[in-house]
Specification:
The complex is a heterodimer of chains A (129) and B (146). With 129 residues, chain A is α+β, with helices and mostly antiparallel strands. Helices cover 22% and strands 34% of the residues of chain A. Helices cover 21% and strands 35% of the residues of chain B. Chain B is elongated and about 55 Å long.
């Protein structure tokens, strides 16, 4: 695959439905009630249940895998910082830019946003393409 | 109050996770990942995998159980009510496929205080039944107001 520094990652847009955190909890084993129990979330001062940060990281990995047609062997490293809270029923946009290319190794700067809120910032994905 | 640093360097007993087809499918479906190598054994074999292959971030599924005893260890003494997952890194080598038995060991690499926050950094190392490196994780947990 021919790529250039500065090239954009194909944008990934996903709107997690109301029950996505329940499905992600089951899939991942992370049943922290702040993700699945409205009453609990409000009791600890959150506006409502929030998305799992690692779900956002999973979407970040998925967006980068698209550069290799979804080949799970391509992603060799992914480093993220979790920032703002994400909520169900609001669109998430994952975007990125190719930062460097060294032989078959491509590094992509990636970000996941929901409106103006950065869910994941300073994400760096390293792929072998 | 300064953070307790007794746990730096500590390793916890490893955990072993058996990777299964339906668990991979469940994870892929939750993420909306529809590449057939994650869902269909014939497609996975045609692409050169032993069996249905896990998406890379399935690493959280097989490595998290090793993190639980680390996070709840009194030597670490984290205040969970004020804890957030600040950052995460994974590095991948051998893909994880259905049928694999993946053994993960967790270690505390640093505990530091910065701007009134405690930064707890752990590493997990995951190897498969053949001893091949599958994934290495770096987990940064931040506790506000230590």
């Amino acid at each position: 695959m021919s790529m250039n520094v500065g090239e954009a990652l194909p944008e990934l847009r996903v709107t997690p439905d109301k029950y996505l955190p329940h499905r992600y909890a089951g899939a991942s084993g992370d049943f922290n009630p702040i993700h699945i129990d409205e009453e609990f979330a409000r009791a600890v001062g959150l506006p409502r249940t929030i998305l799992h940060g690692l779900y956002g990281m999973g979407l970040t990995a998925k967006a980068n895998a698209a550069l290799a047609d979804g080949d799970p062997r391509a992603l060799k490293r992914l480093k993220v910082q979790f920032r703002g809270m994400g909520f169900p029923e609001q669109e998430i946009v994952v975007s990125g830019t190719v930062k460097s290319i060294d032989g078959d190794r491509v590094v992509v700067d990636t970000i996941a946003k929901q409106g103006d809120t950065e869910l994941i910032k300073n994400a760096e994905a390293e792929l072998r393409l | 109050m300064p953070v307790k640093t007794d746990a730096v360097g500590k390793e916890w007993p490893s955990t072993t996770y058996q990777v299964g087809r339906e668990k991979i499918r469940e994870y892929a479906n939750a993420l909306g990942i529809d590449n057939s190598v994650h869902l269909d054994v014939e497609a996975a074999r045609a692409a050169g995998f032993r069996d249905v292959v896990a998406p890379p971030m399935f690493a959280v599924v097989y490595s998290s159980p090793a993190m639980a005893p680390a996070m709840f260890d009194p030597d670490v003494a984290m205040n969970f009510a004020a804890m957030v997952h600040g950052g995460q890194e994974f590095e991948w080598d051998e893909p994880a496929c259905s049928g694999d038995e993946i053994t993960t060991t967790a270690k505390c690499v640093s505990i530091e205080e910065k701007d009134g926050k405690g930064f707890y950094v752990f590493e997990t190392n995951s190897v498969n039944q053949d001893g091949a490196q599958v994934a290495r994780g770096t987990w940064t947990l931040i506790v506000r107001g230590v």
